[in-house]
Amino acid sequence: MTAAGKVELLRTVARTVAGTADSSPFVRTTKARRVKVRLDRKMRYELDGGERGTTKKFTIEIEPSAMTVCVPREAAAAAEEAA
Does this model's pTM top 0.85? Predict the structure, then answer.
């Protein structure tokens, strides 16, 4: 999600709640069963509300249609170029 400021964030949240996040110019969606996350520094992360510690990379296995993950458009483009 790339919304900046209260108005853009409110519009994005409203579209997400309405089930139309794909129509937001600030949200990019994709589908996956496995997600590999690589960060530029160690950070804390959570899965299912539980803290997992700090790391620079991790892999998540996902049940189809069970989860939505949002990343900045620039990060998504960089990931696609690296693939």
Answer: no
